Amino acid sequence: MEISRAAYLEVNLDKLENNLKEIERVTQKRSKIIAIVKSNAYHFGDEMIAKKLLGLGVDFFAVANMNEALSLRKKFEDIRILILGPAWGHMVDEGIRKKITFTVSSFEEAEILNSRAEKLNTKAICHIAVDTGMGRIGFRDNYEEAARVFKLCNIEVEGIFTHFAKSDSDPDFTREQYVKLLKFKKELWYMDCDIKLFHSSNSHAIMGHRVLENSYIRPGIILYGSPEGDKRADDMNLSFIGSLKSEISFIKTLEQGEGVSYGHLFVADKETEVATIPIGYADGIIRSLSGKIDVLIKGKRCRQIGRICMDQMMVDVTGLGARLGDEVVIIGEQGDEKITIEEIAEKAGEIPTSYLTHLSERLPRVYIENGKVVKIIDYILQR
After folding, report:
1. 89 pLDDT band (50/70/90 cuts)?
2. Going by DSSP bridges, is the β-strand pair 7-12/365-369 parallel, antiparallel, or unpaired?
3. At what angle do helices 143-151 and 107-119 cross, to 10 degrees?
4. Does pLDDT of 383 surpass 90?
């Protein structure tokens, strides 16, 4: 494999396919899919993730902001792209031209969007956000104001949606939010507003509230294979699509009393064999994990020791017979051992979704399909 450095994120596209099929199985395909690919598809790479999902029949994708939307549009001319957050004030004209679907949370936003679309002699497509309890963006119970959006000449309202605040922990509150969305939809229908679609279920709602009827569902982290500890997904055969790998770049022996890395947080209490791994906090192994994590070498767990540096970290390999170039797995499987994204995220005091965003563009993405490398994307070399 031709790659620029000895640390990379391996992305298994077959596991992505498996996860999509599991989502479709447990929801019985009652709803279509809006695949969440914001933050560069949770840092797995939106181009290859979207390409794989397109081949599996998914044609609607959601991102967080305009630059993500326009970047995805450059790669795919015809897919539907929804911006989930506010975007009415930034590169609006380009978004309208590129057929990006906007989120509208107030009549004021809709008026701005309508004005810009009118100047372009076209219509802007939007979804209306409804705040049913998240407290972030969206109309609340101001039905008449939302109905006015439908009357604007250069706005096409395609649908409405909400976002669940506690779908991982509070089924009653989630149900209340869902009922509020249905009421909002019904009130708009009474005012002759044509709502083509509506959506509410995020990953934890898909896992735990499968009976909720939606035109579309919005799988995010579940699509990438992490249930984030949600036991309601125990009947799903999810597979995490990422493996974070490196290799041993240097081996040395510490004598008793010698320290390693900044501040000598680790001092050897006996002769200790130490391997250096060329990956650090600039790649996403955050500094607060120093001394807390294991890695896999030769199918065995090895303790990371000392402070994690920007570009390197050290591991105790005493008695392992480790050699230069041996594969190191930070997240993933090796032999009979496994280190999960949930384990790493918990030790970092985070959740898998947030921890994945630490994995930087310095790590080449290596895509695997049918057991073979099908593409390598090296963001640094693309600059």
Report:
1. confident
2. parallel
3. 10
4. no
The values of phi and psi at residue 65, to 5°, are: -150, 180
- Which domains can be identified in the chain, with CATH numbers? 31-224 (3.20.20.10), 242-377 (2.40.37.10)
Contact 304, 295 (CB under 8 A): yes
| DSSP β-ladder status, 327-334 and 294-297 | antiparallel
What is the pLDDT, as a whole number, of residue 88?
75
| Residues linked to residue 159 through DSSP beta bridges, in sequence order | 127, 197
Q: What per-residue confidence (pLDDT) applies to 250?
A: 99
CB within 8 A of 85, min separation 6: which ones? 64, 65, 103, 137
As a whole number of angstroms, the distance between CA 80 and CA 133 comes to: 27
Please return the burial class of 176, using the count of CB atoms within 10 Å of its CB with bins 0-12, 13-18 and 19+.
middle
Cα(297)–Cα(291) distance, integer angstroms = 17
Who contacts 281 (Cβ-Cβ below 8 Å, separation ≥6)? 287, 308, 309, 310
Using left for φ > 0, alpha for ψ between -120 and 50, and beta otherwise, residue 101 falls in: beta
Is the separation of the CB atoms in 168 and 230 below 8 Å?
A: yes
Whether 204 contacts 231, CB under 8 Å: no
Name the residue among 242, 288, 252, 279 with its Cα closest to residue 363.
Answer: 279
Q: What is the mean pLDDT of residues 266-286?
A: 98
- Would you place residue 50 in the very low, low, confident or very high pLDDT band (cuts 50, 70, 90)? very high
CA distances from 188 to 32, 127, 149, 215 (A): 23, 13, 11, 17
The Cα–Cα gap between 49 and 153 comes to 36
- The confidence score (pLDDT) of residue 121 equals 98
Q: What angle do CA 120, 126, 131 make, to 5 degrees?
A: 145
pLDDT for 184 beyond 90: yes
Helices of type H across 152-191: 171-190
Contact 195, 189 (CB under 8 A): yes
Record the pTM: 0.96
Could you give the CA distance from residue 68 to residue 103 in angstroms, rounded to a whole number?
A: 14
Residues noted as catalytic: 38, 262
Q: Cα–Cα–Cα angle for 213, 219, 222, nearest 5°? A: 125
